[in-house]
Design goal:
Blueprint (H helix, E strand, L loop, with lengths): L9 E6 L2 H14 L3 E7 L5 H14 L2 H25 L10 E5 L5 H10 L3 E4 L7 H4 L6 E5 L11 H8 L6 E6 L9 E6 L8 H25 L21 H11 L20
Parallel strand pairs: 1-2, 1-4, 2-3, 4-5
Antiparallel strand pairs: 5-6, 6-7
Helix pairs in contact: 1-7, 3-7, 3-8, 6-7
């Protein structure tokens, strides 16, 4: 496909990850030459820093905290493996695509890069909160993929809270406009997920990412065509934050799922179960 050189089109903001590259592939397939480029968030960590962080954790963490971390890491690896089997994410970005790497999508150099491309629409599938200089730049606005049925569970790691609190009716994904609030913008699309009490937050996240590969490009195309109905949000509680996931709550969740008992589950939940297409 011939790279786009004229201003406009759609720019994707995502992490430099398997999911990010799979989303870029899906966006290119769905949007063609309207897909203008990727702002890829990349924060490399040296081996020394990684080793130092692991050592610091090992020395300071309690025995229970180390156990919880080991289980969570294993569950994350299982969910990542299930995602890779289901999606087969590419090792690289689509050929000819304009990709800009950055540790901070709110930095001035990113604003300059985006301004030079003057996108009609920005699509976000993984990023920190964006400043208005970024999300307010496109002519049609900026849309985001969130892993709950908004207005439920705004903020980070919605799947953790959904599983902990058994809020299955809130599971699924939402594509919404970004505004100055935290996940408070108008809703463009929602896809519920069918889940059971045996699913882990990590596996639920993988299901959401798989669904997003279908829903996000489709929604972006409809925004470009002006074929959308925006539903304002009402209600909803305060946004959840990463620091709200205390060791006590993480322990409670794993105990609820049976991972701290003598007969812990051996097999992760099927990533395809209940997947909406």
């Amino acid at each position: 496909m011939t790279p786009r050189t004229e201003p406009g089109g759609v720019v994707l903001i995502c992490h430099n990850s398997g999911f990010g590259r799979a989303m870029a592939r899906a966006m290119q397939a769905g949007l063609g030459r309207d897909f203008a480029g990727v702002l890829a968030i990349h924060r490399p960590q040296s081996r020394l820093k990684a080793w130092t962080a692991r050592l610091r954790f090992a020395l300071r963490a309690s025995r229970m905290e180390r156990r919880i971390r080991r289980i969570e890491t294993r569950l994350a690896h299982e969910a990542e493996h299930a995602f890779d089997i289901a999606v087969d994410p590419p090792r690289g970005w689509p050929d000819g695509l304009d990709v800009h790497y950055t540790p901070d999508p709110n930095g001035s150099e990113c604003v300059d890069w985006l301004s030079a491309r003057a996108p009609d629409l920005i699509v976000v599938t993984g990023a920190p909160l964006l400043c208005e200089a970024v999300f307010g730049l496109p002519r049609l606005g900026t849309i985001n993929m969130h892993s709950s049925l908004l207005p439920h569970y705004r903020g980070t790691q919605a799947e953790f809270w959904q599983v902990l609190e058994g809020a299955w009716h809130t599971c699924g994904i939402t594509v919404h406009f970004i505004d100055a609030g935290v996940d408070t913008g108008g809703i463009l699309a929602q896809v519920p997920a069918k889940v059971t009490g045996s699913v882990t937050p990590q596996m639920l996240r993988s299901r959401n990412l798989i669904q997003a590969l279908h829903t996000v490009p489709d929604t972006a195309a409809r925004v470009l065509q002006g074929d959308v109905h925006v539903q304002p949000q009402t209600g909803g509680g305060r946004p959840r934050r990463s620091r709200d996931r205390t060791l006590e709550l993480r322990t409670e969740l794993l105990a609820k799922l049976g991972y701290l008992g003598p007969q812990a589950p051996r097999n992760p939940s099927n990533v395809h179960a209940g997947q909406a297409r």
